[in-house]
Design brief:
This protein is mainly α. The chain is built from seven helices and three strands. The longest helix is centred in the middle third of the chain and has 26 residues. Pfam families: MarR_2.
């Protein structure tokens, strides 16, 4: 844990009780732990579409689309149990992808064109606004991402064996809160 004091590594608060220093110390511990888990997984060299030579931004688009499809599936399941009939993946618009990744719509269009040509996404006219496009994962891309996600979870699961189900649920809630705040900031600062 180089770069962090042993007190920070243990999560000790400052003797002075300074809440800013204590918060910063705690944040340093969290970031170091997240970095450690991420480095461990990255060292395995396993990531989706490995043989396809996709760039980081293209992978990010595929992950955003996958997360959107997962959210839609959860909504569809809830609607089906409530007999509301929501079932179709609505996809994500170019503007939504741009906001999620903090880049321009033009950059997304170029990346999507490459992904579409490779058969990983579809791009269709938005029926609600014929000037806009809706981007969706192809079945092949969705399966590849699902296989990756399953491997990712199973390979890192032992790192979390020390946590109870409640603690994992709370950790997930807190990380989603951070993710949501980061997405809000990104949407206001699109370059």
């Amino acid at each position: 844990m180089s770069g962090f004091s042993s007190a920070a590594a243990r999560g000790d608060s400052t003797a002075s009780g300074d809440s800013t220093a204590s918060r910063d110390q705690g944040l340093a511990v969290v970031l170091a732990a997240l970095g450690s888990v991420t480095r461990e997984f990255n060292a395995r060299g396993n990531y989706p579409f490995k043989s396809r030579s996709l760039g980081r931004s293209q992978l990010d688009i595929l992950f955003v689309l996958s997360e959107a499809a997962d959210a839609t599936a959860a909504t569809a399941h809830a609607a089906a149990t409530a007999h509301a009939g929501v079932t179709d993946d609505p996809g994500v618009g170019v503007g939504g992808l741009a906001a999620a990744l903090g880049v321009t719509s033009g950059a997304i269009t170029q990346l999507v064109d490459t992904l579409r040509a490779a058969g990983w996404v579809t791009s269709e006219v938005n029926p609600a606004d014929r000037r806009a496009r809706i981007i969706r994962l192809t079945d092949a891309a969705a399966h590849e991402l699902e296989d990756f996600r399953r491997d990712y979870v199973s390979s890192l699961a032992p790192r979390f064996d020390c946590l109870t189900v409640g603690e994992i649920t709370e950790l997930g809630r807190l990380l989603r809160k951070v993710q949501s705040a980061a997405a809000e900031v990104s949407s206001r600062t699109v370059i």
